[in-house]
Amino acid sequence: MPHFVNRDQIFAHQVHLLEHKLRSKEERILELETENALLHLRLAECMGKLRRDREEDVILAKRHCQHQGKVQKSTLVPLAKLLSHVQALKKELRDVFAVYVGFATELENQSKQLMEWMDIIGKAVQGDQGGDTQRLQAQVASLEGSLQEEKERHRSERMRRRQIHNTLIELRGNIRVHCRVRPILPFDHIQGSLSTNGPSSSEVVVQAVSDDSVLVNCTKPGSPVMNKMFEFERVHGPEDSQDAVFEEVKPLLTSLLDGYNVCIMAYGQTGSGKTYSMIGSQDENRTHPDQDSQEGIIPKAAKELFKLISEKPAERHTVEVSMVEVYNNELLDLLAKDEDGAAVGVKREVITTSPGTSEVPCLTYELVQSSVEVMQLLSTVLRVRAHSPTLVHRDSSRSHLIVTLTVTSKSPNPQALAHRLQSARQNVQHCGPQKQWWSPRCPRAASSRSSSSNSSPQSSPCHSPCPASWHVVPQEPLRTKLQLVDLAGSECAGTSGVSGAALWESSCINRSLSALSDVLGALAEQRPHVPYRNSKLTHLLQDSIGGDAKLLVMLCVSPTQHFLSETLQSLGFGYRARQVQRHTPHRKNAGLKRK
Ligand SMILES: Nc1ncnc2c1ncn2[C@@H]1O[C@H](COP(=O)(O)OP(=O)(O)OP(=O)(O)O)[C@@H](O)[C@H]1O
User: Fold this and answer.
1) Whose CA is closest to atom 2 on ligand 1?
2) Greater confidence, 16 or 4?
3) What are the angstrom distances between the C-alpha of 479 and each of 96, 372, 412, 566?
4) Which of the two residues, 505 and 21, has the higher pLDDT score?
5) In terms of CATH architecture, what is 174-184+202-281+294-424+476-579?
6) How many other C-beta atoms can be found within 10 angstroms of the C-beta atom of residue 365?
7) Residue 101: what pLDDT?
8) Which residue, 196, 333, 449, 554, is the most exposed by fewest CB within 10 angstroms?
9) Ligand 1 pocket residues where CB is under 6 Å
10) Closest Cα to atom 17, ligand 1: which residue?
């Protein structure tokens, strides 16, 4: 402690102390104020940062919200789909599981039953019950035998039924209709993929369910099942060979030599197999090992005709061929040749003669000696015949082709005939309706014929014994014709994708086919006027359609959904053709002359 002398010194010292304290306080205050200012500054900085952070947060939150909205939007729909898919899968799985459980139970039951049987068999074998086993085996064998017999009986009954039906058809003068369903071909899948009808267009909807019925499934997607059944004299499925198809046609050739006119006509939509059925495969790179089996009705019919002729050596036959096409409602003679001998289609006309039959004046006829010659002529003609590609068929025939084989039969020499009659008389004393060499010069037959102007030899037979001398009179030649027709295909312009000149061709084809349909309609309804002359095609085929020829329509149809409406149209045409009742086909009398 300092030593003070007086009070003033003490006082001054205290003042000094106080001043010192005050200064230090003031320094402290300044220090604190500086600190305070710094803190304020920091606070302001923090507040600013905080505000910025908040603002950023708000922006981020906004963005986040927007993003979430977008994400939700884009995921909700697929999510819903996914969910329903999952639900469907779950259901499917449950169903499959239920089926599986069913199968498993069934399998278990069956294996139990099998075990029981094994047990019984084991016991039977062990317990020397061989006699029972043998008896059972014998029973099985006899059951199999009777099943076989039943099958055989059923088959022969069916054949008999068909024969009776065919006879009935013939007696009623009906047109015979066969139907051929072609197999699915590679272009059906292309059509299917091009189609707007959906992916099921190459699905098979037309089936040959038996040898006389064809079933068409006309169900539209989302509609109840609707099947239509069509019956024809014969139905061929995709597996039926060319030989099988011809077998059903073959008897008509015997009829031809028996004195009937015959016409076989293939009808159907484009690409349905008409040319394949009538002529055979036209594919350039065909490499079938057995070409004969691939041939169609025309070559097979020509072969059969010459075979039948060769089996009748006593009679003399000549065969002449004519080939025409109806193209754009013009009739063209395809065997006519120009000065250089090249085949050119020459225009001809169809006329109706006074007895009411149709004739083509100046038509070229070629005399042929064998089926090979017929086919040589046909292959020349096919090069001239109009054909062009369409969307449906890359080698579509654009004309109706009519190949006619005219057979002239001359009676054997009188001695040979007398000899034949002599042996025939030993069996039959009367000249019946079926006699092949029935002579129109027999006075009794002639008088019985003249009593009914319309009657054929079959309908007015002579029932009296006839002296042989009346029959040995040499006869006039007998002419019969076999018309083989490959029609152009019906089509709709949309499907075939044609335009310009091809569209005109297409419209001519459709018009002539609808004229054919109209003719059948008029005949079926027995209308007094039949519009044969509405088209060259119907005018030319007048005798075969409405006359007394044996007419067979071969309907060709495609099996797939893509061509369903065209198929139904073709089947409808066949149905209409079957309704036609004409005069009973009758044999030609000798003496028919070609004009
Ligand atoms: N039954 C069948 N078996 C095997 N191929 C067939 C059958 N039917 C038709 N084809 C084939 O289908 C295609 C079309 O047949 P096709 O030429 O006979 O038709 P189309 O009815 O004559 O046609 P378009 O009227 O257009 O001339 C051809 O390639 C043919 O070989």
Assistant:
1) 182
2) 16
3) 71, 22, 15, 38
4) 21
5) 3-Layer(aba) Sandwich (3.40)
6) 15
7) 65
8) 196
9) 182-183, 185, 268, 270-276, 281-283, 393, 396-397, 488-489, 556
10) 275
Nearest-atom index, ligand 1, CA of 397: 27
Average pLDDT of 528-552? 90
Q: Which residues contact 552 (CB under 8 A, 6 or more apart)?
A: 175, 176, 177, 178, 249, 252, 262, 263, 264, 265
Lowest-confidence pick of 164-168, 286-290, 468-472: 468-472
Distance 271 CA to ligand 1 centre (A): 5
In this prediction the ipTM stands at 0.98
Residue 278 CA: nearest ligand 1 atom is: 18
Distance between CA 352 and CA 538 in Å, rounded?
12
> What pTM did the predictor assign?
0.64
Distance 292 CA to ligand 1 centre (A): 17
> CB-hemisphere CA count at 13 Å for 435?
25
Long-range Cβ contacts of 306-312 (<8 Å, 24+ apart): 306/370, 306/371, 308/253, 308/254, 308/257, 309/257, 309/407, 312/257
pLDDT in tens, 331-356: 999 999 888 877 788 999 999 888 77
Average pLDDT over the chain, rounded to an integer: 79
Whole-number Å distance, alpha carbon 534 to ligand 1 midpoint, is 29
- C-alpha 275 to ligand 1 mean position (Å): 6
Domains of the chain, by residue range, sit at 18-124, 174-184+202-281+294-424+476-579
- Give the model confidence (pLDDT) of 92-132 as tens digits: 766 766 665 666 677 777 777 778 877 777 776 666 556 77
Say how many Å lie between the CA of residue 5 and the centre of ligand 1: 150
pLDDT tens across 187-217, in order? 787 655 544 444 457 789 999 999 889 999 9
Residue nearest to atom 16 of ligand 1 (CA): 273
pLDDT at 417 over 90: no
> Which of 184, 239, 275 to probe ligand 1 with, by most ligand atoms within 8 A of CB?
275
Binding residues for ATP: 268-275
The C-alpha atoms of residue 554 and residue 273 are separated, in whole angstroms, by: 10
